[in-house]
Task: inverse folding
């Protein structure tokens, strides 16, 4: 089972994001605070879980967490500040929305831009090590996948209901055929040969 806490006595918020790699759609981050005694044998990195398991766990997380939040950074903002900074901004926005101020942030990955003066620990593959980070990874992924399913109805043909905006063959062929949408990240390499899409 994943670890309940890092510090034993501090109020910890696990933070993770979803959607750094896609060609379209927002980057989404989540922050989750559990009690330091919290246990959940099913919680794991969202990438290792089926959709049905993620949906069950999402309900449990929202029920069991002391507080949780999800936040987004839109494609236009990603293009302005780059995807790494956008992922930090999304995490900051999620932390800002928490009903309780954490005393320590557990960040999935190896880089973070400090939020106010809160201490933080960057933990590589943290979503497979700590319950709160795993929970944040599930909330962020589910939220983003649902946003892309809704976007697929507005912009059909790109397969976003299947690929969530990631650079699949289907998605790239659709960009070549249909052009780009307002949800595409213009700062990303949308096609391997980077055709002149913006004329």
Result:
């Amino acid at each position: 089972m994943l670890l309940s806490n890092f510090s034993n006595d501090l109020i910890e918020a696990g933070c993770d994001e979803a959607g750094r790699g896609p060609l379209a759609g927002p980057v989404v981050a989540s922050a989750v605070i559990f009690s330091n005694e919290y246990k959940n044998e099913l919680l794991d990195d969202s990438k290792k879980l089926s959709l049905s398991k993620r949906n069950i766990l999402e309900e449990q997380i929202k029920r069991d967490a002391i507080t949780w939040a999800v936040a987004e950074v839109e494609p236009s903002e990603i293009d302005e500040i780059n995807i790494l900074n956008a992922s930090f901004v999304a995490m900051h926005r999620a932390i800002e929305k928490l009903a309780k101020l954490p005393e320590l942030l557990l960040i999935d990955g190896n880089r973070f831009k400090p939020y106010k003066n809160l201490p933080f620990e960057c933990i590589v593959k943290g979503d497979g090590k700590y319950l709160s980070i795993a929970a944040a990874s599930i909330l962020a992924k589910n939220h983003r996948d649902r946003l892309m399913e809704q976007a697929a109805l507005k912009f059909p043909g790109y397969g976003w209901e299947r690929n969530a905006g990631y650079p699949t063959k289907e998605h790239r062929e659709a960009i070549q055929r249909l052009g780009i949408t307002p949800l595409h990240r213009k700062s990303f390499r949308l096609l391997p040969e980077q055709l002149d899409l913006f004329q």
Observations:
- The radius of gyration is 17 Å.
- The helical segments are 51-64, 75-81, 83-97, 131-154, 160-163, 169-178.
